[in-house]
Structures are given as C-alpha cells and as structure tokens.
C-alpha cells in the first residue's frame, strides 16, 4: 500500500519572518537539489527567479543516521560562497533543499541542517523535502494531481493539497516496477530464457545481451557483485526498447507490462475527484514510442478524469518554486515530517 501521511502546519512564528511589500521581491533564497550525481544549487530572488547555478560532481555521503548533513555542508558552503559573490547577494532569506532518500534517510538532515545553515548564512526558514516532492513541485507546482518520476527506479507522488500519497519507490529488489532497472532486468531474463531454451525467451534480446555483456553464463558474475546493480540493469532498457521497435513480441510485452505498472502507480496516488493533472518526468521518457504509446493508453484507461500535461521543470526547478513560495509565505503544498518539512530557526 502507498504511504499516506497526515498534513501538518508550518510553525506559527514563521509568519514573522515573511518579507512584506517591496522587500519580498528583493528577498534572496537558496535552492538545492541533492541526488545521485551530486549537488546542484541556485541563488535567486523572488522578483528575478533563479539567478546563478553551481554543481558538484560528488553525491553526498550517507552514514549511520542517513544522509550526512556535515558532508552536505562541506560541499555546499563553497558553492554558496561562489554564488553569493557572483550575484552580489548579501543576505539569504530561505533555503529549500530536495534530497534523494530524505523520506527514509533524512534523520541527520532534519536534526542538523537547519542549525548549520543558520550559523553559516543566517537563513532562518528552511524547507527540507524528498526529491520526489521537489520533482512534483517542478512538474506541476501547487496543483492537485500526480507525478511519476521514472528513471533507473520509479516513484509516484500525488496530492490533493491536503496530504501526500506515495506509491512504489521501493528499490529494484522490492519494487520500482516499470522503471529502467525493472525493464532491463525483464529483458535480461528473456535473454537467459532464450539461452536456456525455456519458454518466454527472445532471440533478439539474447543477441543484444551477449553484445553488451558477453556470454550469458558470465552475466551473474558481472552483475551480482556490483554495488550499482540498478544502473547496470537500467542500462539494458534502451536495448529492450530497440527490440520492441523492431517488432520483437517479447520486448513489446515487457514494455506494455512496464506501462501498466507505471499507470498503476499513478492511479494509486492521483486524487479521485476534481480535475487533477498527471505528469511524467525522468530519463525513462527517452525510451520513446515503444513505452510511451502503451503508457498513454494505460493512463487514459486508468485515469479518465485526469489531464495529462507536460512536466514544467525538474526537481531543482521544484526546489526553486518551494523556496520562492516559502519566502513570500505562499507555500500551498502540504507539509509532512518525512516528505516536506518546514522549520523556522529561532533568532
């Protein structure tokens, strides 16, 4: 069953920190996206939006308490110094940070980061979010609906603006159904079936797998010891799509099954009333027509009341939106201890 978390309210003292009148347009914010490829940070203002961006190439480390707040600050501090120098920003008013794994690995960030950013930059209003939430905010803003983030893994987030609903995102061993690793694994299973002479195999996928990984008996030894197994599995998803585009029935079936799984997750989190919006985001969309055409059919079947829309932006864009709304006191997305936590540091 998907998570369903009760809504909570931002601290009452937060309203005292809200810029008013002309101050709001000049108020500067810091927006951050922390993911598997490192940090991306933006400094901007309410009036001008994002002004300057910096990136790091190293993911934040994890420890006994999850995502390491001290390591995040070590990486973020020089980026912010460069950004404030470049933009001439004197005071940062608000921080919004989206982090991969925040829902389950965010204890250290929740405990340590608000105090650290206040001491370092004087920031007093901090929003910490799961990257699925910033993906939602980037794609739809503060509109009710559902967003499916589909890449190596797969997670769906939905809200009616009173509470969040989550489906999947359980990793390549327990879920992420329809994501890149799931498609790649299903394609490799079909290749192994063909190698063994079992039903359900695909000679086309076998040929592709051998071209990529070599003889099939060596595949387990290449795959199982790897710490990046999901990425290795997902790397085969484009080959499955290529075989489907060439008419291989097994590959076509894999992508149709993936489409059903993705639509299942979207339907599990999408509001059932009103006119919600549904958007897709993530690298899996590059798979193209062999996946997207059956996916559109499944979404139409499962969510006839919803409007399919293009995602407006990515998770960093979502962090910028949350930072902007928090700065002016207009955050409409529901807060939640695990998914979107808003903190006001005492002066």
From TrEMBL:
**Domain named ATPase BadF/BadG/BcrA/BcrD type: residues:** 32-295
Q: SUPFAM superfamilies, per this entry?
A: Actin-like ATPase domain
Q: Name one Pfam family in it.
A: BcrAD_BadFG
Per the record, where are the segments of Pro residues compositional bias? 1-10
Annotated spans, Disordered = 1-20
Gene3D superfamilies of this UniProt entry?
A: 3.30.420.40
- UniProt xrefs under PANTHER family: N-ACETYL-D-GLUCOSAMINE KINASE
Descriptive protein name = ATPase
Question: Which organism was this protein described from?
Answer: Streptomyces cadmiisoli
The root-end lineage is: Bacteria, Bacillati, Actinomycetota, Actinomycetes, Kitasatosporales
């Amino acid at each position: 069953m998907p998570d369903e978390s009760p809504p909570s309210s931002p601290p009452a003292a937060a309203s005292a920190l809200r810029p008013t009148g002309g101050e709001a347009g000049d108020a500067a914010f810091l927006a951050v996206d922390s993911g598997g490829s490192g940090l991306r940070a933006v400094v901007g203002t309410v009036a001008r939006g994002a002004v300057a961006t910096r990136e790091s190439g190293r993911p934040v480390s994890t420890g006994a308490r999850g995502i390491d707040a001290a390591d995040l600050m070590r990486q973020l501090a020089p980026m912010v110094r460069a950004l404030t120098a470049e933009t001439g920003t004197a005071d940062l008013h608000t921080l919004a940070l989206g982090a991969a794994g925040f829902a389950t690995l965010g204890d250290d960030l929740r405990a340590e980061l608000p105090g650290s950013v206040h001491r370092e930059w004087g920031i007093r209003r901090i929003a910490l979010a799961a990257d699925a939430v910033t993906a939602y905010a980037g794609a739809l803003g503060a509109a009710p609906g559902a967003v499916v983030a589909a890449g190596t893994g797969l997670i769906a987030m939905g809200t009616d603006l009173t509470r969040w609903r989550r489906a999947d995102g359980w990793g390549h061993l327990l879920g992420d159904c329809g994501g890149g690793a799931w498609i790649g694994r299903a394609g490799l299973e079909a290749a192994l079936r063909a190698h063994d002479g079992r039903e359900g195999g695909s000679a086309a996928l076998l040929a592709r797998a051998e071209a990529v990984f070599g003889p099939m008996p060596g595949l387990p030894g290449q795959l199982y010891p790897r710490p990046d197994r999901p990425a290795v599995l997902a790397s085969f998803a484009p080959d499955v799509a290529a075989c489907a585009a060439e008419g291989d029935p097994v590959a076509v079936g894999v992508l149709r099954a993936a489409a059903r799984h993705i639509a299942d997750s979207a339907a599990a989190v999408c509001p059932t009333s009103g006119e919600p919006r549904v958007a897709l985001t993530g690298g899996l969309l590059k798979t193209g027509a062999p996946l997207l055409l059956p996916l559109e059919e499944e979404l139409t079947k499962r969510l006839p009341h919803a409007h399919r829309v293009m995602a407006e932006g990515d998770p960093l864009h979502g962090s910028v939106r949350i930072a902007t709304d928090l700065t002016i006191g207009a955050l409409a997305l529901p807060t939640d201890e695990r998914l979107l936590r808003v903190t006001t540091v005492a002066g």
